Amino acid sequence: MTLLKRYILGQFIKTYLMTVGGLIGMFIIIDGFERLDEFVTKHGEVSDFLMYYLLKIPFILSYMAPQAVLVATVITLATLSRNNEFTAMKACGISVTGLTFPIISFSALLALGLVISNEFITPFTSQKMNYLFNIKVRGGEDQSKKSRDHLWIRSANGSIWNINSYDPVRSLMKGVSLYSLAPNQPDIQYRIDAESALWNGKQWEFYNGYIRFFKSGTIESTKYFEKQVFPVLEKPADFKKLQKRPEEMSARYMYQTIQKQEKEGLDSTRNWIDLHQKLSYPFVSVVLALIGIPLSIRSSRKGGLLFCVWVSLVTGFIFSFFYAMGISFGHKGVFSPILAAWGPCLLFICIGFYMLLTIDSEKLLPV
């Protein structure tokens, strides 16, 4: 029993590695022809071109790995069935569940590996990849070092910043106004106006300004200063944060962004959907494995290997359609974030289990 499971697992892993390697290779070749022209016209170096796609592999793998599970499952089991190995194993009294358990276990471990990769590896490599292409090759300006004008920022404690210009290189603000609001009320407690503010490494130093205290909507007192330090939560990094691309964000970063938005009273529904999508997509590998197992066994009875692969591709397309539709409905507010991202997975898991239970039946439906 153990030897048979190891044999099936070995065949599956070998097929999976070839499948995912082939999918990644095709993606790089197709995308490479599109990018090559721009690298040449921008006089990019060959080393930059190679490094770009080396850094892009984790990003490609995060999308291709679950899809490769379905193809590898179908090819592995269809091949065993065609060689009558699967029939011989069943004749020895081994159940379908027992024979296919290694495939499902590997798919679950793969999903966990993708979650870890998306958390620690893919965001880092994607940032490097986008910087190399957009800044080094295209010659764009590094937005994180670019001065920003007319900023309005809401603090986690409810305070509101209005900054005419901010230099992230020197951590220098010019034309600063800071409004401190009363807790759970729209009234202003005090307002700080300063000609400039500079980060000294530990805190913000405000220069040439004044602070006005309000009571019942009127100015109670005004205090002028040449240099003053005020207790504020924000640090320089908070003023130069830019909207990252989805592949550049980890789940932790996305969750922290959501918490900050909710404290500021902003709608975070779309971000919740993106977070659940990031967490659910790796587990598509388990869903497709559950679907692929009964499909491969059923379709191998009716046709050859090519027929099985064709059936698996159609099934993968149908699942992708339902998954994309769920995310789309979530963005439009029709589905909740959890239902939008996890609903299609749960639906197809139920379908997969049903097909496994009825695998020995000639009819797909009990009618």
Polypeptide structure, described:
The protein has 367 residues and is α+β, with helices and mostly antiparallel strands. It folds into two domains: 217 residues, no CATH class; 76 residues, lipopolysaccharide transport protein A fold. It contains eleven helices and six strands.
Keywords:
367 residues; alpha+beta; lipopolysaccharide transport protein A fold; 2 domains; 6-stranded antiparallel sheet; 11 helices; 6 strands; 60% helix; 17% strand
Set out the fold topology:
Elements: H1 2-41, H2 46-82, H3 85-91, H4 96-120, H5 122-137, E1 148-154, E2 160-167, E3 172-181, E4 188-199, E5 204-215, E6 218-229, H6 236-239, H7 251-263, H8 269-280, H9 284-302, H10 305-331, H11 337-357
Antiparallel strand pairs: 1-2, 2-3, 3-4, 4-5, 5-6
Helix pairs in contact: 1-2, 1-4, 2-4, 2-5, 2-9, 2-10, 4-9, 7-8, 8-11, 9-10, 9-11, 10-11
